[in-house]
Amino acid sequence: MSSSIDMISVEKTALADIANMAHVTRWHAMNVHRKQSVAEHTTLVTIYAHVLLQRIYPDHSAEEAMKVILDALYRDAPEAVVGGDIPTPLKRLMEEGFEDGESPLDQLERKLCPEHHKYRSAIEGTPLYSISKLADILEAQHFIMIEGKPPQGQQVFEMRGKAFRDLVESSRSRWPELIWDEAYSVQKELLYGTGYKIQFKEKFQR
């Protein structure tokens, strides 16, 4: 007997659903100073993924760069289609008892956002997937460092930091030819670096 999920057939994600990423917010289970839209998160993840790719894998091809960018752009698109951002602990609970990628939530995301599955499948099992995922973790860590309220914000910041380290080291063991230490350099620059800011007052007082 076919389930209701099996009866869904979507050739491509509706553009209106993609546009909805600007209104769907993240961090529902967190006490934060402001909510973050999925579109904001996705944009930053894509930029960070590009930076990480340049630093970790400088000899990548143009095709590999495009694969990383497309995965990052569509990484969280299902959240705009399947009812918003599901907190990670709840998502993990929903996945228990199913093979990887076979939970009802995973099946629904594949049906309603086929580009997400297509671009993810193109890089799974490669260092490109790790680079895209590192960008995702890093963006979350940076956002919660700035916008998270204590004590929960600090706890999540530390958890994301551990997830980042674990993924860097597991990726290093699988693909030792790449420059994984650069991931830590990018993380340090983002979290603790000082951006260039024009000192307008100083300029106009001259």
Walkthrough of the structure:
With 206 residues, this protein is mainly alpha-helical. The radius of gyration is 19 Å and the shape is globular. It starts with 14 loop residues before the first helix and ends with a helix. The mean pLDDT is 86. Helix content is 62%, strand content 0%.
Features:
about 210 residues, 11 helices, about 0% strand, mainly alpha
Write the layout of secondary structure elements.
Elements lengths: L14 H5 L18 H19 L5 H13 L3 H4 L6 H8 L8 H9 L1 H8 L5 H21 L4 H23 L6 H12 L7 H6 L1
Helix pairs in contact: 2-3, 2-8, 2-10, 3-7, 3-8, 6-7, 8-9, 8-10
Shape: globular
Structure classification: mainly alpha
Termini gap:
78 Å
Helix content: 55-70%
Q: What portion of the residues fall into strands of 2 or more residues?
A: under 5%
- Say how many strands there are: 0
- SSE string: HHHHHHHHHHH
The gyration radius over C-alpha positions equals: 19 Å
Number of contiguous helices:
11
